[in-house]
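Tutorial handout. Part one gives the primary structure; part two gives the three-dimensional structure as tokens.
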Amino acid sequence: MLERLNEALEYIERHLDQSVEGAELARIALTSEYHFRRMFSALAGMPLSEYLRRRRLTVAGAEVLAGERTLLEIAVRYGYSSAEAFSRAFRAVHGVTPGEARRHGAALHAQPRMSFRLVVEGSTSMRYRIVEKDAFAVVGKAARVPLVHEGMNPAIVEFVRGIGQDTVHRISQLSDQEPRGLLHVSVTHDASRAEGTELDFYHGVATATEVPDADLDSLPVPGGTWAVFESSGAFPQALQHLWRDVFTQWFPSNPYRSRPGPEMLSARVAEDGTRADAELWVPVEHAGG
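Part two.
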């Protein structure tokens, strides 16, 4: 898998002055575009689109300083429709405009070429199981919130605290299948999972019951395969690191890839709020089909 990802990175380098489509990169990596973008984000620590932008502007910066092409020629070469658009993007990365960089020989910021290597640490084992589930629904209360990679998510904390205890009790009574009990369910709309991108968050349960009350939200979930990971440790850091480890360690070494669908977290938090035992349910499909 890592070899194929590196072939995709090599393709990017050969086409920095052309349009690079995620579907083509996924084809090179022999996976789905959805999974490729998720894997890239987890491994690189940034969305694919951001890496492409930084690499293009790194190479463009070198051409600006070289002075062999006009600024407009460089802008067009790297996909910008006007010198003004190029200047804005250039300043966002380098802190100066292309004209200022050329006149004063300013120091620029470089995004190095990436390559992925397998680092074998052997310090952590991951407990998981594969579960086939029929279609069901997530029923509860929903809100759209920003994604936070580290620490508590203030928007989620505020949203959950605002749900009345009577409503929480009604929701919890609807749980009739795995994962049991109240869940934190996330539906991402941006496969890059960049910090601050929005997701739909449900505080609810997995159930086959039809929604009995108009004030509750329902998310239909088709049947499919799920990888279920167990975690125990500091809250919420251990859970956030578990998601990272799933994409950086488990997927590259197992014959599965992620598929669109909600990620479901069942957590039992200690009374002092410092630790939690949890299960993370991630929708997957076999990489062979």
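Part three, for discussion. The longest strand covers residues 275-286. The two ends are 16 Å apart (CA to CA).
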